[in-house]
Amino acid sequence: MSGLPYGMAPYPLALEPQLHRRVWGGEWLKEFHGGGADLPEHGPEGEPVGESWLADGASVVRNGAYAGRSVGELAAQLGAELVGTVPHERYGPRMPLLAKLLDAATALSVQVHPDDTYALSEERASGHLGKSEAWYVLSAEPGASVLWGFRQRTTGDVVRGAVAGGTLPELMQQVQVRPGSVVMNPAGTVHAVGAGIRLYEIQQASDLTYRLYDHGRVGADGQPRQLHLDKSLAVADLSGVPFEQRPARPLEGGWERLVQRPEFVLDRAQLSAGSVAAGSVTSESLQLITLIGGEAVLEPSEGAAHRWDALHLSPGSTVLLPAGLARVTAQGGARAGVSGPKAAQRLTQGDEESGGGYVLRGDGEILRSSVPPPTHHVREASETEAARGPHSDQADLRERDQARGGRR
Ligand SMILES: [Zn+2]
User: Fold this and answer.
1) 339 pLDDT above the threshold of 80
2) Structural domain contains residue 391
3) Which residue is catalytic, options 22, 211, 261, 327?
4) Domain containing 195 — which CATH number?
5) How remote is the CA of residue 299 from the centroid of ligand 1, in Å?
6) How far apart, in whole angstroms, are the C-alpha atoms of residue 253 and residue 226?
7) pLDDT 10s digits, 97-120
């Protein structure tokens, strides 16, 4: 079994953003990251920066004993101590989530991602999982919209005809977005970010993207980017599910839940001067914390099992809270997490025995993501997606509430 080397106490990992050039990108992300001159950049020379990868397997730790190591290396070494027992059981010792910022100066290609079942059979050689993803819109020009699913049930032949004729967007639902809009793209949902939208994206860690349509555009090399029509149609949901914007659900500790999916959850806290958001890491999953705007300080709560140095967050700062923070250290005495004040233990649901408590103070907007435990009926999201349609998150939530004896 993997485990922390003796004497190596878990601590929040501050991650270095990685900038990715994209043909549809813009100038904003470098500014957002404070100039970005010394941040690593990837992708074709000459293209603008479209994405900032905040947390994935290639992310490099900036602070503490693991400084300079990648999250992927640490996941391989530490296993569930880093990623948590739930993703470890599902995916093994690898980073399960990928968090990004996107700056779409122009529209992205129309694309679709496979689910885990397809990825593990048809794309086994790639080593990638399927991909469900969710967008949280940070800013949008007036009238900006995304393309999401089809207006009505359609067929592969109709889609092929529309791609050939350059009219695919006309078959799709055009959804206007504004700051704070949440868009969930379960695996199989055909989607595209429109021009003038900046967003945070949380997704399963996977690079499997099938492009259906690229607005007739060419890349920096003057060539059109490759389309993957056969694979797209093998995984696309053609059923015409209507788009739905779901309201946020209040949680304890100053958070609200924006997205609840089997693959990940996404929470938001909005701090105003002097207010505090409190949370707790459990042994089930790592948590990713990203400051979207303003300023904040992240520090251990009074009852936390591990003491660690407070981290000052600026916009774009992303911290990985290892699942091991919830555990009492081998040499650290018994149940440190339960000895603290009751208030510190009861900050969020599900942390009765946990010492992984933390607080965020400041004046800013914070996003938090993690991998949830399986719902009452143990099943793979990918197997049930087609049967239940993409908007099953509320059903999952109800089942989970019932599984917990209706505590909420
Ligand atoms: Zn996508």
Assistant:
1) no
2) no
3) 211
4) 2.60.120.10
5) 33
6) 46
7) 999 999 999 999 999 999 999 999
